[in-house]
UniProtKB/TrEMBL annotation, chain A:
It comes from Falsiroseomonas tokyonensis. Residues 168-363 form the ABC transmembrane type-1 domain. It is a multi-pass membrane protein. Pfam families: BPD_transp_1. Its main location: membrane. This is ABC transporter permease subunit.
TrEMBL record, chain B:
GO terms for molecular function: ATP binding. It comes from Falsiroseomonas tokyonensis. Keywords: ATP-binding, Nucleotide-binding, Transport. Belongs to the ABC transporter superfamily. This is ABC transporter ATP-binding protein. Residues 2-235 form the ABC transporter domain. InterPro entries: AAA+_ATPase (IPR003593), ABC_transporter-like_ATP-bd (IPR003439), ABC_transporter-like_CS (IPR017871).
Amino acid sequence: MRAGEIGRALLLASVLAGLLLPWLTVAPNRLLPGTGMPGFSALGWAGPAALLALALAVPWRLPAWLGAGAGLAGLALLLAATGWAAAAALEGMAPAARAGLGGGFWLGLMAGAALVVARAAALPTLGRVALAALALLVLAGLWQAETFAALSLVVEYQARQAAVHAALLRHLALAGAALALALLLAVPLAWAGFRRPRAAGPMGAALGAVQVVPAIALFAALIPLLAGLLALLPALRGLGLGAIGPAPAVLATAGYLALPLWRSILGGLTAADPAAVAAARAMGMTEGGITREVRLPLALPVFAGGLRLAVVQAIGLVTLGGLVGAGGLGALVFEGLAQFATDLMLLGALPIMALALAADALARLVEQRLGTNT
Amino acid sequence: MIHFENVSVRFGGTTALSEVTLEVPAGMLCVLVGPSGSGKSTLMKLVNRLVEPSAGRVLVRGSDVAGQDPARLRRSIGYVMQSTGLFPHRTVAANIGTVPRLLGWDSSRIAARVADLLEMVQLDPGLAERLPGALSGGQAQRVGLARALAADPDILLMDEPFGAVDPITRRDLRAELRRIHAETGKTILLVTHDPEEALELASQVAVLRDGRLVAEGPPAALVAPDAPDFARTLLGGGQPGLRRLSLLPAEVAQDARPAPADAPALDEGATLADALSRMAETGRDVLALGQGSLRLEAVLARGR
C-alpha cells in the first residue's frame, strides 16, 4: 500500500466512524439538547452507498478523476440523505422541533471532503478547478431543491438571513480596515528600519510586545484607553471614534497584523541581492530608481507571504470584535455562546472558516505568481 | 583619458589610498594589481564616483569628476563586477538594456543593440528571454560584460571580472576580452589579484601595495631586472626572466642574417619564451624566423 493510500484509507475509516456516531439530533425546540440518531439508522440505504462511493477514492490504481468524481458523488449523497433524514425525523412533530447536526455528521463530512481533496491532488489544475465548480454546482442544486430546509442550521439561517449577510459584510469591512491601518503603520516603519538597521531592533521588539498580550486582553484594554482619550479630546468623537464599537476592534487587530507585515516588508527589502543593488548604482540608477526597479520587485515575493499571513489573521482576529460591540460574524458566535445555541454559533463560525480558507487560497495563488517572476 | 592626481582616500581612520598619481591614456587596457587591501578596487571606484577622494583630483576625459552628476557619469562608463550583479527578476535582454533604457533610447534601438551585443560576447540569441538564474557562471559573466558595453561607453571598469568562474571559462573570457579590446579600442581599467592575468591582459600595469602605487608601466618593463623589487616578485612568479621573455615577441631579437638551412623554424607570433623552449627541445642555438634568424645570445640579451 502506498503512503497516500494509507492516508486515504484512514480518512474513509473516519467517515465510517462518523456514520456510527450520532449523525442527527432531534430536539423539541432550539435550546433543549436532543436525542442522537446514529448515521446508519438515520440515513438508511444512503449511508452504505455513500461509503462505497467514497471508497473508490482510496486506491491509486483507479484513475484519479474516477476516484475524485465518485468521492464527490458520495459526499453529495451524504448531504442530500442528511436533509431527507432530517425532514423525515421531524414529520409529525411540533413546529418548534429541531433536527440538528450531530458530531458524527461533522466528522464524516470533514473526513469525506478531505478524502476527495486528497484524491483530487493527483489531477491537473484544470481538473481540480472543474471538480470544485462541479461541487459548488451540486451544492447549489441541493440548496435550490430545499433538500436542507428541515435542518436546524438552515432554519436558523433563514430566520436570520439579513443579519448574517450584514455580519459577513461587516466582518470583511473590519478586517479590511485593520489590514489597511496595519499597512499604513508597517510600510513606513519597515522603510525606516531598512534605512537605519540600528532602529530595526527596537521596532521589532515594540511590535513583538503587542503579540505577547493575549488578544482578548488587548481588545478589552483598548476600551478604557479609548474612553480616556476621548475624555481628553472630545473632538475625536466627531470623527466617529468611540470607546466601544469598531474602533477598538480595528486598532487591536491592526496592532497584531503590524508585526508580520513589518517583518515581511523589511525582510523583502534586505533580501535583495546586494550585488544587484551595487550594480544598479554603478550603472547610474538613482536611489529612487534602485528602490523602484530592484529592491521592490525583489521584495514582493517575501512580502506576499507576510500579507497572506496577515489577511488570514485579520479575518480570525476581527471575530473578537464581537466582544467589544464591533459586530461582524464574531457577534453571532458570541450571541450563540451566550444562548448556548449551537446553530447560531455555527452560523458565525462557518463563514469565518470559509473566509479564512478562501483568503488563504487566493493569497497563495498571488504569491505563486509573484514567486515565478523572480 | 583617466588621470589620478595625488589622490588619497580615507575611510574613517584608515587610509585606503595615499597620494596616487596615475595616467591611463585612451585605448589602454590598464590592469590594477596588488594583494587584497592594497587599494586597487578603491582606485577604480574613484573613476565613476562610487568612492570620493579625500584629497587630490580624478580627471575623466579631461574634466574633474567631482563636478559631474554621479548618475550621468556612471551611465557613460561601463561597469563589470565579480558577482555579475545581474538583476534576477529581469531577462537577459532587459539586463543588457539597462543603461540604454536609463538613457532613454527607444525600444527598437535597444532590441537591436542587445542582439548585436549577444553576438559580440558570443552568446546564443535564444538566451535573451531567459532569466539570469538559468545561466552558467561563464554565460552570466558574458551577459555582465554585454550589459557594461550596452551604451557603447568609451571607458570600461572591471572589478575582478573573472574571479568567480572556473579556470577554463576564465581563459576563454580573457581571450574574449582581449579580442573585444582590440576590436573596440576602449579604455579599460581592470582590477585583479592574479599576477598572471595582469600580465596576460594588460597593455599597462599599475602595482599597488598598502594604498600606494609602487610601480607602473608596460608589463614587460615590470618584470625587467631594473623593475622595483615588489612588482618584480609579485608579477615574476619566481621566474621573472622567463615571464619577461614570454611578454616579448620574437621579432624584437631578430637577426637579419639568414639561419642555416637545417635550423628549426619558429612560428609567426611566437614570443622569446617560445623561442627559448624551441631551442631547449631541439638543442640548437639558432632558429629560422621569417627571412632572418634568431640566436640564443640575442634572446638572452633581452632577458636582462
